[in-house]
Here is the input.
Amino acid sequence: MAMPLDVTLLLDNGDRKQVIIPVNDKFVKRESQAIIAKPWFGWGNINDRYILQLSLPSPVRSAIIDTSGRLADLNRLDNVSGFGVPVAWHFDNMKLTLPTLNKYDIWLRPSILYNARDGLKPGIHWTSNYLPSNYLQWWNVDFGLWYGPLSNQTGYQLEFHTPVQSLGRLTNFQIRSQVLEGREWHTLGFYGQSRKLLDSRPFYTYAASLHRNEMTNSAYLPSAQLWERGRQEFFRVSLGYSGQIMSGIYNIRGELENSLFDSDFSYSKSQFVLNGTLDLLPKITARYRVVSLISYGNPPVQRGWYIAGASPADATEMNWMYRSTGTLSNALRGNGHLNAGGGLNLRGYLNQETQISRGLAGNFEFGMPNPLTRWNNRWFRTGWYLFFDTGTYRTQVTHNLQVRSDGGTGFIFSFPWIPESLGKYNLRLDFPVWVSRPVNGENTLAGRWLIGIGRSW
Here is the structure.
């Protein structure tokens, strides 16, 4: 519904003039000493420009719309004419970050990273936004800058998000750039959702982006992590759907990634993922994931598909602790005990990890009644589950179809006191005690184990 517009004019001589712009000629808001302007007939993009001519005792220094704040307004930062917006500065305690209605919020805090090559890296972290939500990110800037005293290197991470509603009501534009710990990552694209109702299913998700990645210094690589040199330039598009069935929810997502002409690698890869949850019994919840992976050409080893977990590039994006040497044990990596969930997620075969050209897998977890629940508190929580994984794949070396399965039990540990703004730090400990095709003289039943940080699976 169109509403009359209240405008306050601030004059150079210090005076203030109130102007009311009606939206029709049948109803006019009357206020003492207010100037009643000619009506503004228009809606949306129809007659979207209004010119008002007034005779005033002094030039206008600035104009302010809706100074009373009575109108429902998605963006109040553009209610004041001129350059710049009002800003509110805060110290970021990473817990309580209440937004300011009429100002652009900037949150600052110190930040520390670590790796063996740089040492303990002091830095600063900047977050700024206006009324952030789960759907639209108004001028959201996330920036970090760090200095490595041992290497004398400075690195940064930058993300910028803001709505582009010409592409969809809940669409955001994004820029991501990183020059940090021997790698350059740059992204340009958009993402969003299509919903009939907020905070309810069903809804669609969509994204498209351009990427440029390159390894600039391999000295940062953990000893057991594979990474090929060369410039990677590719585009990625994805489409998803989220719905609800019976007592659970499900998500479907398809994604295509293809190299660009100026890339040092020529490849194409795609994935189709179905995952969700289902309440089987009052205290047992099932989680499931079905994934189909295909790749063609020559993808770099850091971006390929793998049988037991995520690729090195995906693991690096998942959590910064996977990124460089010194943060996690090289012995855990080299002996097949450190996992980042992804790929076919046949977790019992982490010690046989290999890159594949195509694969199909199902992962199933059953959350069990937890005898340790009574010790859960605001510092520490735990969960217990049984799992079963099964899949088939072909490697890039041989075209023979391989079939693998595993099963076991696992525990998830979460730490509620860690702020969400720092990322996911849940700890998963899996025991794939049974595998269908062991190697190196192992028994089918054995005391295998693996650990992961921030894993969803």
Notes: The chain has three domains: 1-82, 85-194+211-216, 221-457. Residues 85-194+211-216 form one domain. Helices lie at 312-318, 330-334. The mean pLDDT is 90.
